[in-house]
Amino acid sequence: MPLRSAWPHEAKDFTPWLADNLDVLGQAVGLALELRQREYPVGRYALDLLLQDAQGRVVAVENQLDQTDHSHLGQLLTYCAGTQAKVVIWIARTITAEHAAALEWLNANTVTGVGFFGVEVELLRIGDSVPAPNLKVIVRPNDWTKDNRSNRADPTAWSWDAYVEELRLPQARVEVGRQLVEALIRGIEERDLAWQPVMNKGYVAIQRPGAYNVFIVDLWGNRVPRLAIKLPAAPDELHLASPYPSLQELWLASEREWGWTVPPGEPIPDLDPLFDLAQTYNPVSGAMTQASAPTQPREQS
Q: Which end of the chain, N or C, is more open, meaning fewer C-beta atoms within 10 Å of its C-beta?
């Protein structure tokens, strides 16, 4: 079936659908994918989807509902450079022979540790069934292990010292991040949860089995450390009142992160309310539940 019968507009329809169904893309390319941001700005342009995989590698995704063209190939390279992506995925209705050859050349000749995928999307219907998308990988990296000596996306490559020395983050900001992560680890141990911290470039994710992020401690995206929790929907939709009314609150809809800035010098907030929320929406395994929170909003202290 024509792709635009299901997604009339690429940016308004297909990209949001893909962001909500990363398991479909992940199954096609063989990666566990997590959304970081939609329409991620790179200079004068905007990358459709900025993702990360289970190893913490940056994944850049560019979409087309038509056949590939030279303009999007140029944008793809711009996004790769602008995000320092280790995985680049080009999705289109048709990957032309010329552009498939270009992706294969990039896989064979570009910086070690960087891989390019070419993926075709089609919409199928059998009889009167509901149309279903199908993703076919046309081009994939030839050798993921050719040389990872410069792969800084490896979670073990980042440390608190590296945040200061390599990212040049202020020591006071990093110290707040360390205290937040240590408090989260204590909460995990007290509740006997199978969650663990994963250090990435500029932020620490608390992940549960399946590489699903539960909490984020972001040191790089703001001048002040940000503590955030993943939610299935906006706090207002879930009838949630902020557990930290004295802290600056921020809802990132594209990443479904509800966060608060924790300035250096301020005490680390009580994390019990966040763990209560996290355990409400995060099952032992599988995707986050869409179940609503209690209909009565929490009283602010």
A: C
